[in-house]
Amino acid sequence: MDTSPGTPHRLDPAGGCPHAANARLLSRAVVAPVVLPGEVEGMAVLGHDALRDFLGHPEVAKGARHFTALREGHIAEGWPLRTFATVRGMTTADGADHRRLRSLVSRAFTARRVEELRPRIEELTESLLEDLGRAAQAGGGLADLRRHFAMPLPMGVISELLGVAAEYRERLHQLSHQVVATDIAPSKAVAANRELVAVLAEIAAAPARRPGDDLTSALIAARDDAGDRLSQEELIGTLVLMIIAGHETTLNLITNAVRALCGHRDQLGLVLKGEASWSDVVEETLRWDAPVSYFPFRYPVRDLTVDGTVIPAGTPVLAGYSAAGRDPAAHGPDADRFDVTRPARPDAVRHLSLGHGAHYCLGAPLARLEACIALERLFTRFPGLDLAVPESELPRHSSFVGNSVRALPVRPTP
């Protein structure tokens, strides 16, 4: 890769491990020009301090109307990142619209409501550990932890919150995986988005006829209010967001934490001896191997100088969470070391892997709870669990948005 200062970094649509490229980019500047699929020019904010400031800047917007190339008709319908820019929901709303949409779902993710979910998460975790054990027995001692445990846990929890029946869940996972892929062909991207919208509309039809005690019913009630608080397009867009963000991020978090602990048995030993907590593992994993690498998009509403680099108004900007997590300027010279005993940091220099500012992840408390329960129960049941293949042979995500592997073959040794 050409590392001269003015050379844009061409993001690989096939994804791969981001950390080596992040380190090279950070050695040059904390803000980097990038080339997105389709030869779309953009920028990425990589340094921790710069990213924190950028995420909270009052003149940085999320609405697609600020995306100059999209507004001027230069972005094809099948562009693999188009959904990130155009889906109608919290992630593409600003100001009063964002506050309105966020308020409709925030009550489901308060600390009290999340804590009330603990018994159900524990019950589901135990059931999935049984499934993992049976899969290993059937597979000669090997099983895909991602398929049998890390995916169905958060998908099951968010589906129950939304009132999504079990028969839809595997298809929703497949479709959401295609939506976040960055190497997908235009025709497949269009088809996946259309099918996802159709499936979610079908799912929403049931609570529309017979409301229940679930978030989808509450959103439909808001849509049907006389004040028209939520349009049908916003309803489906919110469901898209909840399904994708509600399981993909936690799926990657659990997967990455298991990989990290299996690759650092000394750190696992500290936790099992009580010298560090499972919460410490979750926070260090979020920092060291963020579940989202480059998150699209934000747009300066005017030319904006970030750490000495001008980002022109209307430029699509990626939040470089995986780079910021290993930024030595914020996390010290050993930032690339996985250390569950790393001292707690003040809020100003905590990791940014769940966002910052007005768009901070609403589901952060739920993701943390699910991951802590999952890891504690997994390594209690299978303390000798280890990877079945070397880390270097694990197949990576076909995306530079999600940061994880597509499969995690393990030996779940009792």
TrEMBL record:
Q: Name one Pfam family in it.
A: p450
Record keywords: Heme, Iron, Metal-binding, Monooxygenase, Oxidoreductase
Looking at the record's lineage, which domain of life comes first?
A: Bacteria
One GO molecular function term?
oxidoreductase activity, acting on paired donors, with incorporation or reduction of molecular oxygen
What Gene3D superfamilies does this protein map onto?
Answer: Cytochrome P450
InterPro entries according to UniProt: Cyt_P450, Cyt_P450_B, Cyt_P450_sf
Answer yes or no on keyword Heme: yes
- Give yes or no: UniProt keyword Amino-acid biosynthesis: no
Q: Where are the transmembrane segments?
A: none
The Swiss-Prot or TrEMBL record describes its family as follows: Belongs to the cytochrome P450 family.
UniProt cross-references to PANTHER family, sorted A to Z: CYTOCHROME P450 YJIB-RELATED, P450, PUTATIVE (EUROFUNG)-RELATED
Protein's name in the database: Cytochrome P450
Q: Which organism is it from?
A: Streptomyces luteolifulvus
